Amino acid sequence: MCILMVIHRVLPDYPIIVAANRDEYYDRPTQGPILLAHAPRVWGGRDERAGGTWMGVNEHGVVVGLTNRRLYAEQEADPDRRSRGLACLEALQGQTVAEAVESLVTQPPQRYNPFNLLVMDHGNLVWVAYDDEPVIQPLQPGLHILANGELNDFETARLRRAQQLLRATERTDLFTLLPFLEQVCRDHEPGVQNRETICMHRDADNYGTVSSTILALSAGGQKPVYRYAAGHPCQTPYTAVPSVEFI
């Protein structure tokens, strides 16, 4: 279970703002954001076991974020299906949202276990819900939050908490917002089980939040903001991802 929080086309200078926590087994090997591909250039974290990514951005300003999709308790992943992280990585080859989504539409059905993607550029944001085949839903500008179920499912404790916290901030400019986004990613709601907090600790299961990313892309040529915490964000400071350049 991961959580993606997107503020799209709300701040005029930064139409793409993403805050995301990745939840995974602690012993799954991972590399923090690096240059993943050269044509086009793609930056993102690498899953060292399967070779894909859970979130990335390319030189054209296309951003793709992935969450596993779990619709009912007994649903199990089919180990013979292709890694979902590879679908995310291939979508990042697109120069536009439409091209990124097309990479999924043209693939054979039942190739992946269920997943969600949020795919965005400066002008467009879409949600792709994949359960044997992709279902694509264009989204309006604003705040959108996604975990491992339906988009903006505010009956889910951690989505409801994220919405409450993000609605409480005054979005005047990015650099006022950034420290608040870090606080949201670190949040442990009092009285809520560890499996339902935004920053998740399930040490008995060897599972929880293993990293956190904050990404903001400008509309007018300002330098992108790309920050990464390589561990629980409540315990690990965010640092800038170096050498990220966009055309």
Describe the structure.
- The protein has one domain (3-240): Penicillin V Acylase, Chain A (4-Layer Sandwich).
- The protein contains four helices and 14 strands.
- The strands form two sheets. Strands 1, 2, 10, 11, 12, 13 and 14 form a seven-stranded antiparallel beta sheet that branches. The chain has a seven-stranded antiparallel beta sheet with strand order 3-4-5-6-7-8-9, covered by helices on one side.
- It has 247 residues and is α+β, with helices and mostly antiparallel strands.
Please outline the helices and strands:
Blueprint (H helix, E strand, L loop, with lengths): L2 E9 L2 E12 L4 E9 L2 E7 L7 E4 L4 E6 L15 H8 L5 H9 L9 E6 L4 E6 L3 E5 L3 E5 L10 H12 L5 H12 L15 E2 L4 E11 L7 E5 L9 E2 L7
Antiparallel strand pairs: 1-2, 1-10, 2-12, 3-4, 4-5, 5-6, 6-7, 7-8, 8-9, 11-12, 12-13, 13-14
Number of strands: 14
CATH topology: Penicillin V Acylase, Chain A
Largest sheet: 7 strands, antiparallel
Counting structural domains, the number is 1
| Name of the CATH architecture | 4-Layer Sandwich
Helix content: 10-25%
Task: Please identify which CATH superfamily we are dealing with.
Answer: Penicillin V Acylase, Chain A
Q: Could you give the distance between the termini?
A: 33 Å
The first-level CATH class is given as Alpha Beta
Structural class: alpha+beta
Radius of gyration: 17 Å
Secondary-structure element string: EEEEEEHHEEEEHHEEEE
Mean pLDDT: 93
